[in-house]
Amino acid sequence: MESFFPRKSFFEESANYESSKCFDNDIIFEKESYWKSLVTSENTKWAVNAVKKYIPSGLSNWKAWNLWKQWIPTSDDLLRDAEAAMLQGFGLPLQQMMVNAGAHTINTIIAGQGTPLVMLHGFAAGIGLWTHNIKEFAQHHTVYAIDLPGFGRSSRTPFTGTTAQEAEDYFVEALESWRKEMGLEKFVLLGHSFGGYISGCYSLRYPQHVDHLILADSWGLSQMPEKGGLSDIPSWKRAARKVFLLMTPISALQYAGPCGPKLIEAFRRDLANKFSNFYESVSVVSDYLYHMNVQHPSGATAFACLHISLRWSKTPLCQRIHALDSNIPVTLVFGSDTWIDREAGSRLGHNYGRNIPCHVISNSGHHIYADNPVEFNQVILGASKSVQQVHLGPEQSCILQEAHL
Q1: Domain range for 333
Q2: Which of 35, 38, 108, 366 falls 20 to 30 Å from 394 in CA-CA distance?
Q3: What is the pLDDT of residues 169-212, one digit of tens each?
Q4: What pLDDT is attached to residue 254?
Q5: Number of domains comprising the chain
Q6: Whether 379 contacts 357, CB under 8 Å
């Protein structure tokens, strides 16, 4: 029986990761000579070679995926049911549709009435995680929450590009096609984490459709700092880091097969517990997180072309914000204990050349929408209702405001 693992090396076999163009060469290391010099111990060499051959997104290859998915306890029906269980916690009538958007089909929910508010989730997330927020937002807005292409229940259209620009196009053009299909002319655009980055990219390309850009603990704001600080780390830890960076952030879950649901329960119980007031069991959230993240990883494949070492964007918004239409108000929102670089707000405002209000939500980490939803919702609603554009000098370009509402 033919093995579904790639026979060739990762960089030769994978259609979606066929060269290190998708990665920073200093992070993933295309050359075989580097692999040989990475570490000296035989057991670590074996581990690196094994990961190099089997772990990287071979699952992005459809032939490999169709074989592998037989071992993963999921299906489209199970994902649909898991999402339906999450949406029941929203506590208000929802309209749901699958919207044809070019090469993609975008899962969309609509609620409320008022100024359009479009919400984009973060990496490895979906519309079901807005449980804390949509009901309140819908009292003031017509809320459109979508699953980004390659995530949630949106179509998993294969990503075949190799560059950051192609990856950005994959998401931004899908959002624009969705906008046209929905007949939206202008809207407030709210994005969390990776969704914030895509929101920024969309606003740069299609500013005429954005009334207000709100970046909630957004990924991709700042550039990667200069290298250094790794020399004092033990070689085995550095090797482990290289092994880890070969995987997409969700590939370990996919390769875990039937052990995957238990991994979600063990390692993401913290996130599931944030929704305990809405569901009888946190397994509702765990099931949703599992089933939407073990589908075909086309979204994760595109994301891999956008990042350096997971945390940093190849084309950070701080280097591009100067090109944003000055008529678009921008608001930044950060968690008080987030891993995101909050100082990026100051740099963003400096490069934008005008005031960018920056709100810090107390007692919250990266998942600010669920950590402290009361303050988060009030900040978002306040920002989306009225924004005064104040032209300030670079030294006053970002006003940090602790949110005590």
Answers
A1: 76-224+309-403
A2: 366
A3: 999 999 999 999 999 999 999 999 999 999 999 999 999 999 99
A4: 78
A5: 1
A6: no
